[in-house]
Amino acid sequence: MTNFFNALSYNPSHPLVFISVLFIILFSAFFIIYAITFKNIRTRNVLLLLFSLFFYYKVSGVAVILLLVISTSDFFIGKGIYLSVKKSTKKILLFLSLFINLGFLFYYKYANFLLQAFSDITGGSQSTLVLNIILPIGISFFIFKSLSYIFDIYRQNITEPENNYINYVLYVSFFPNILAGPISKAADLLPQFKNKTLITEDTISKGFFLIMCGAFKKVFIADFLAGNFVDRIFDAPQYFTGFESLMASYGYTIQLYFDFSGYTDIVIGIACLLGFSILPNFDKPFSAVNVTDFWRRWHLTLSAWLRDYLFTPLSLKWRNGGSFGIITALMITFIICGLWHDAKYTFIIWGALHALAMAYDVLTNKIRNRIKKKINKKIYRFISIFITFHFLCLTFIIFRATDVNTAIKIYEKIFTNLDFGLALQWIKLYIYPFLILIFGLLLHYSPFKWNTFLLKQYTKIHWSLKAFILFFAVIIIYQMYSSQAQPFIYLEF
Fold it and tell me: Is the pTM of this model over 0.85?
C-alpha cells in the first residue's frame, strides 16, 4: 500500500514522463474509465480535468497551484474584457492578465538570470544573490496558451468568452500538450471540449501508431545520437577535432528535430486516443530555402504565437519605418523567442542570429529573386536548402552549448581545425551514430510519405495483429529507453 501511495505522490527526482512504465499504467487505468464515460460531455471533461491536474502534480508538484491560479484569473479576466464597454477598462484588464502571467514567468524563469546579469555588470558576487527557485515544467507553454486566449478576447478574434470554468481550466491544463506543446489556441481546442468526441477503431489505431512513431524517433534516433556521440563532443569539445565538432552539429540538429517531433507525435497520438485533435508542429523544417521559411516549418505553434501576438503588432506599429521597422520587429521578436526557451546568453545570441538571418532575407529579397530567374530552379532550391541547413546546424551549436565559452570552443575547432581527411576514420569510429544520422536525414528528406503509408497499413490489419505489434514495440522501446534514457529536450523550456 505504501508503494501505491508513493507512486501517486510527486517525486522531484522522478517526474512523470510519457515514455515510462508508470505513465502507461496510470493512463491505461484512466483510459478504461474514460472509455466508459466519454459520451457524457460534462463527465468526460471533469474526468479529463482531474487527470490533467493529477498529471501536472506528478510532473511539478505544488506548481499545480500556480497552474490553477493562472487559469482561474484568466477565466474571469477574459469574461471581464468581453463584458466591459469602455476600451480603457478592457485595456486595464489586459494589462492585469499580462502582469499576472508575465510576473510569474519572470519570477520563476528569469529572476536568477537578471540577478546574474546585474552581478556581472556591477562585479559583485553572484552566489549571494541566487534565489532558490524551482522552475515549473511547462510554464512557458501554458502561460502562452492562456495569454493567447486573453489576446483573442481583447481583439475580438473570439466572439464570446468561455463561460464554463471546467472547460477553460481543462484547456490550459490539458495533459497531452501542457508540458511542451503544441501551443493550442482557444479557438482550436475549446470547441472540442463542448462537443461529443468520436472514438473509433481508426482513431485508436491512429493514436497508437503516432505514439509508436514518436517513441521510435525519440529512442532509436534522438537518444541514440545523444548518448553515443553528440553529448561527448558538447561536454568536452577541447578533446575533439574540427571535423568531429562539425559532425556533432549535424548530429545535434537531427537529434533535436527527432526528439521534439517525436514528442509531438506522442502528444497528438494521446489526444487522438481521447478523441481530440491537436495541430502538428513540424513541416519538413530542413527543407527550408531560408531562415524565414524555416520558421514557417519549425515549431509551428510557437511561430504562429510570436507572429500573431508579437511580430505583427510591432511591425504594424513601425510600418512607416519600411525595412528598418520590420527588422527591428524581427530582432525584438526573436530575442524574446530565445529568452522564451531559456534565460541564458546562449539563447539570446541564438535568437539574435536567426533575426539577423531573416533581416538578410528582407534586405536581399529583390536581388535573390533576380538571381533565381537566371539559374535552374532546382539548382537554386538545392543551394538554398544546403546553405540554410548549415546555418541552422551552426546556430544550433550555441543553442545546445551549456555556455558561450563552450560554443566558442566548438566554433574554433570547426573554423580552424577542420580536416575532411578524417572523415573515413570518424565513420569507422562512429559507424552506428553515422548510420543513424544518415537514416534520420533520409527519413526527413524522403519525398515518400512513409508515415502516411505505414499508418494506412497499420489501420487495415486485424486488431489482434495491431495489439501484437504494439506490445512488441513497447517491449523493444522500453529496453532501449532504459539503457540510454534521456529527458525530452523541450521539457527544459
Answer: yes
The three three-digit cell numbers of residue 39, written as one number? 459520451
Angle at 381 between CA 380 and CA 387, to 5 degrees: 90
Claim to verify: residue 76 and residue 143 sit in the same structural domain:
yes
Report the interhelical angle of 63-83 vs 139-154 (nearest 10°): 10
165 shares its domain with 218: no
Distances (CA, A) of 232 to 228, 259, 399: 8, 18, 16
Do residue 368 and residue 404 come from a single domain?
yes
CA-to-CA distance for 295 and 334, rounded, in angstroms? 11
Domain shared by 56 and 166, yes or no: yes
Instruction: Please identify which residue in the block is written with the cell numbers 463561460.
Output: 163
> What is the identity of the amino acid at 301?
T
pLDDT in tens, the chain (493 residues): 566 666 778 877 777 888 788 888 899 999 999 999 989 999 999 999 999 999 999 999 999 999 999 999 999 999 999 999 899 999 999 999 999 999 999 999 988 877 777 766 766 655 556 677 888 999 999 999 999 999 999 999 998 999 999 999 999 999 999 999 899 999 999 999 999 988 888 888 899 999 989 989 998 999 999 999 999 999 999 999 999 999 999 999 999 999 999 999 999 999 999 999 999 999 999 999 999 999 999 999 999 999 999 999 999 888 887 888 899 999 999 999 999 998 899 999 999 999 999 999 999 988 888 888 888 889 999 999 999 999 999 999 999 999 999 999 999 999 988 888 888 888 999 999 999 999 999 999 987 777 788 778 888 887 777 777 777 777 777 666 655 667 888 888 8
Claim to verify: residue 29 and residue 122 sit in the same structural domain? yes
C-alpha radius of gyration, the chain, whole number:
24
Catalytic member of 341, 354, 390, 444: 341
Taking the alpha carbons at both ends of the chain, their separation in whole angstroms is 35
> Are the beta carbons of 162 and 186 closer than 8 angstroms?
yes
Question: Is residue 299 annotated as a catalytic residue, yes or no?
Answer: no
Contact indicator for 281, 301 with CB cutoff of 8 Å: yes
State which amino acid sits at residue 100.
I
